[in-house]
C-alpha cells in the first residue's frame, strides 16, 4: 500500500500541470500588475486555489489511509465473532469507504457533480482504467458463474433509476440499497459453493493478524471517523478549485475526483493477476462496481438527494452501461486479454475527450 501514495501524489501534480493551474495563477498575477486594484483579489484567489489543491490531496490520502485501517478493523471483528472468511471476502472485496465518504460529504454540501462522480465517474475509472491497465499488463483469466456476470452487467443499468428525476429520488435510494443487499447475498452464497470469490489480498493479510475485540473495534471507529474527515476535505478542496479556476464542476466530479480517489484500484486489479490470483481480481472488480452503483448511489439518493446534471443522464450513465456490457462479454468468455485492456483504455480516453468537448 505504501507504493500507492507516491503515485497518488504524482497524479495530483499531473492534474495541476495538465489544466494549467500554475500557469493560471501566473497569468492572474501578470494581469494584476496591469490593474493594481485587482492585485489583492488575485492574491486571495491564489491562496484559495493552493489551499483547495492542498485540501483535495490531503483529504484523498487521509481517506485512503483510514480505509485500510477500517478494513483491518472490520476483518478483526469478523474473526472475533467467527463470521465466514468467504463472506468477509465477498462483502469487503469492493468496499470503498473513502468513496462513500466523499460522495455523502459532497452531496451534503450541494456538490452534486462530485457526489455523482463517486458513482459514475468512479465506476467508469474502475472498469476502463483499473481493469484495462491491469489486463494490459497481466491478462485476467477467470471462469465466473453466469449469474455473477449477469448481476455485474445489470448493476449499471439499474443505477439509471437514480437519474429518472431532476433530483435523485429517495425511493430510488431504497430500491438500490435493497438491490445491493440482494446481489451481495447471492455473491456470498456463490462464494461458499463455487469458491470463485475468495478473500482479497488486504483481507487475507488482515486475517493473518490476530486482534483483540477492543483493537478491532478501535480500528473500525478510527477508520469511520477519519474517512469522514477526509471526505469533507476532498469536497471542500474540489469546491475551491472549481470556484477559483473555473474548472467545470462536472469534469471535476466525473474525471478528476474519481481518478484521484480510486487510483489504488489499478494495484488491486493488476497485482493479484500478476500473482495468478485471477479470482481475487475478478471479485474486487465485481464487488467494487456493486458498491459504487448500488450502495453509494443508494445512500446519496436516500440521505443527501442531489440535482442530476443532464450530461450525467446523457453521457456518463450511458457510457458506463456500454463499457460494463463490453466487460461482461469479456468475462462471459472467461478472459480479459491485452487487446481488451487496450480497448478499455482507449474508451476512457474517448470518455475524457467527450467531457472536454461538451464543456
Major beta sheet summary: 2 strands, antiparallel
Total helices: the number is 15
Give the name of the CATH superfamily.
NCX, central ion-binding region
Q: First CA to last CA: what distance?
A: 35 Å
Radius of gyration: 20 Å
Strand order of the largest sheet: 1-2
The count of DSSP E runs of length 2 or more, i.e. the number of strands, is: 2
CATH structural architecture = Up-down Bundle
Describe the structure.
The protein is mainly alpha-helical and 359 residues long. It has one domain: Up-down Bundle (A middle domain of Talin 1), CATH 1.20.1420.30. 80% of the residues lie in helices and 1% in strands. It is built from 15 helices and two strands. A two-stranded antiparallel ribbon has the order 1-2. It is globular. The two termini are 35 Å apart. The N terminus is likely disordered.
Amino acid at each position: 500500500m505504501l507504493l500507492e501514495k507516491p503515485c497518488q501524489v504524482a497524479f495530483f501534480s499531473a492534474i495541476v500541470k495538465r489544466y494549467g493551474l500554475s500557469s493560471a495563477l501566473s497569468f492572474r498575477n501578470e494581469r494584476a500588475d496591469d490593474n493594481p486594484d485587482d492585485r489583492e483579489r488575485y492574491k486571495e484567489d491564489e491562496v484559495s486555489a493552493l489551499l483547495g489543491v492542498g485540501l483535495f490531496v490531503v483529504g484523498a490520502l487521509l481517506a485512503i489511509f483510514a480505509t485500510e485501517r477500517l478494513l483491518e478493523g472490520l476483518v478483526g471483528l469478523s474473526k472475533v465473532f467467527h463470521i465466514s472468511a468467504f463472506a468477509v471476502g465477498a462483502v469487503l472485496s469492493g468496499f470503498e469507504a473513502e468513496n462513500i465518504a466523499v460522495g455523502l460529504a459532497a452531496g451534503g454540501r450541494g456538490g452534486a457533480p462530485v457526489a455523482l462522480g463517486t458513482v459514475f465517474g468512479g465506476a467508469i475509472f474502475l472498469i476502463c482504467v483499473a481493469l484495462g491497465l491491469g489486463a494490459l499488463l497481466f491478462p485476467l483469466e477467470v471462469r465466473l458463474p453466469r449469474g455473477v456476470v449477469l448481476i455485474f452487467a445489470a448493476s449499471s443499468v439499474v443505477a439509471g433509476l437514480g437519474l429518472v428525476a431532476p433530483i435523485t429520488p429517495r425511493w430510488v435510494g431504497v430500491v438500490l440499497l435493497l438491490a445491493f443487499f440482494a446481489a451481495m447475498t447471492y455473491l456470498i452464497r456463490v462464494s461458499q459453493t463455487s469458491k470463485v470469490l475468495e478473500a482479497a489480498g488486504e483481507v487475507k493479510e488482515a486475517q493473518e493478524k490476530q486482534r483483540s475485540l477492543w483493537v478491532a473495534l478501535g480500528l473500525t471507529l478510527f477508520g469511520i471517523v477519519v474517512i469522514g474527515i477526509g471526505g469533507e476535505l476532498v469536497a471542500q478542496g474540489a469546491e475551491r478549485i472549481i470556484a477559483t479556476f473555473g474548472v467545470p464542476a462536472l469534469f471535476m466530479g466525473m474525471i478528476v475526483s474519481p481518478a484521484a480517489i480510486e487510483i489504488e484500484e489499478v494495484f488491486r486489479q493488476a497485482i493479484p493477476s500478476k500473482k495468478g490470483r485471477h479470482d481475487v481480481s475478478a471479485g474486487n472488480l465485481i464487488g467494487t462496481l456493486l458498491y459504487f452503483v448500488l450502495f453509494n448511489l443508494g445512500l446519496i439518493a436516500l440521505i443527501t438527494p442531489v440535482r442530476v446534471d443532464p450530461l450525467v443522464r446523457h453521457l456518463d450513465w450511458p457510457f458506463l452501461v456500454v463499457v460494463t456490457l463490453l466487460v461482461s462479454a469479456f468475462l462471459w468468455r472467461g478472459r480479459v486479454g491485452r487487446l481488451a485492456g487496450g480497448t478499455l483504455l482507449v474508451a476512457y480516453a474517448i470518455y475524457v475527450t467527450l467531457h472536454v468537448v461538451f464543456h
